[in-house]
Amino acid sequence: MQPSVLPRAVAAATATASSLGLSVDDAIVLHDSNKLTLRLLPCDVLARVAPAADQVAHFEVDLAQRLAEAGCPVAVLDPRVKPRVHQQDGFVITLWTYYEPAGPRRIAPADYAHALRRLHAGMRQLDVPVAHFTDRVAQAQHLVASRDRTPALTDADRALLGDTLRNLREVIGERGGPDQLLHGEPHPGNLLTTASGPRFIDLETCCRGPVEFDLAHAPEDVGDHYPGVDHELLRACRLLVLAMITTWRWERDDQLPDGRRLGTEWLGEIRARTIPRGDVENARPAPSQG
């Protein structure tokens, strides 16, 4: 959030929690991006704060409840207050259980894969209207095509990103397995280590697509422990995800610290890893013989 808005967002969260009977003397900023994540003390609640125009909070609260009921390893809302979205001073606030970190920070690949399998299994039980992963690819393509929104991209780098996004979108669309509800961004930053095991957070990025798209966000060795993976498809998904997050770093208004350095580094990685056109054709499924 903009520094000028931050104090109001913190005040909105503390006022909301206090009005619900929770004791709040301090607010510790845990994460600050398009949303603000706070640890409120001494009640020990995790508060997420977003501008009121952000309607994703309602979706996330509903989905978190349904996934928890299905036995999925997800963070849950704080049980001391009603599970709902609160509004205060132009912000929407949601109150979640705070999980004290437990065990090693790096989750073992087998445990990571097991948690993701459980999440996917629960997600297959739900009928939730969400965008397809290709809609997010299209957003990245629009950014690459817009010189106004990505003015610092050179012509060569713009062509590299545009070709990579287009080719891999086609390959994955033709080769991909059955679509299902996905987390959308189950990277290590969205998986907590808790006393009750790994738990996924930040469900606002949910979309539909093959499970390999989710696995592409996890460390590479996680895919070795997830049964039934199409490793060629996973390879293509990894490069696609890399191209997408690289594109975000070149957006004019991107606020990720050190984002431009990362964008430059990732462009070099894409250039080194881009699937040659012949390999792309080989990755396509063979024509039906029926």
Explain what this protein looks like in three dimensions:
The chain has 290 residues and is α+β, with helices and mostly antiparallel strands. 42% of the residues lie in helices and 16% in strands. The strands form 3 sheets. Strands 1-2-3-5-4 form a 5-stranded antiparallel beta sheet. A two-stranded antiparallel ribbon has the order 6-9. β2 and β3 form a beta hairpin. α7 packs antiparallel against α8.
Distance between the termini: 56 Å
Give the rounded overall mean pLDDT: 91
Which series of helices and strands comes N to C? HEEEHEEHHHEEEEHHHH
**Portion of residues within helices:** 40-55%
Helix and strand content put the structural class at alpha+beta
Report on the biggest sheet. 5 strands, antiparallel
Radius of gyration: 20 Å
Low-pLDDT stretches? 277-290
Q: What oligomeric state is this?
A: single chain
The fraction of residues assigned to DSSP E strands is: 15-25%
**Shape type:** globular
Spatial sequence of strands, sheet with the most strands: 1-2-3-5-4
List the total number of helices: 9
The count of DSSP E runs of length 2 or more, i.e. the number of strands, is 9
